């Protein structure tokens, strides 16, 4: 792709993004919705995604950009979830989604992009360990300590079995990988 075409596509993307953002804020004003209050995490998510854009633009040499892209995007997604739900206390265990999970995912993506099978393997193991840590601490804080008060009501009656099933899946994956 030549430089003029790349600049033209970038200008189109920026223009479309600004129109969409302006329309969103206009609709928020008309319908009296605090758009900024819901969407501020995208100021973290978008720069994280831009690391992936850089990775694609640079080709194989850009593979290492997947790691910071994965970390920053994950932090933004965690904040988006917490902002929408008000479950800020989930930081007690959500950190496991950043390290080692997001780091592992970033390493695996970099390995896939750069044709490095050992990086894919290491990243996958790291991500699996991170998810196991997340499930363990989520179970501990939400089911045993009832950190967010989620144990009561319909959400709690669904969340507890889902956490138990998730923990079982993680154990099965590790058991099957060892065979």
Overall description:
The protein is flat and about 55 Å long. It has two domains: 1-39, no CATH class; 47-178, no CATH class. The mean pLDDT is 88. The chain has helices spanning 3-30, 35-39, 42-58, 66-85, 91-94, 98-113, 117-144, 153-178. It is built from eight helices and no strands. With 179 residues, the chain is mainly α.
Key terms:
mainly alpha, 179 residues, flat, 8 helices
Count of folded domains: 2
Using only C-alpha atoms, the radius of gyration works out to 20 Å
Helix content: over 70%
Structural class: mainly alpha
What is the number of helical segments per DSSP (H or I, 4+ residues)?
A: 8
Q: Approximately what portion of the residues adopt beta-strand conformation?
A: under 5%
Number of strands: 0
Query: Outline, from the CA principal axes?
Result: flat
Helix and strand run: HHHHHHHH
Mean pLDDT: 88
Provide the low-confidence segments as ranges.
none
What does the main sheet amount to? none
Q: Measure the end-to-end span.
A: 46 Å
Summarize the structure.
The chain is mainly alpha-helical.
Show the helix and strand layout.
Layout: H1 3-30, H2 35-39, H3 42-58, H4 66-85, H5 91-94, H6 98-113, H7 117-144, H8 153-178
Helix pairs in contact: 3-4, 4-6, 6-7, 7-8
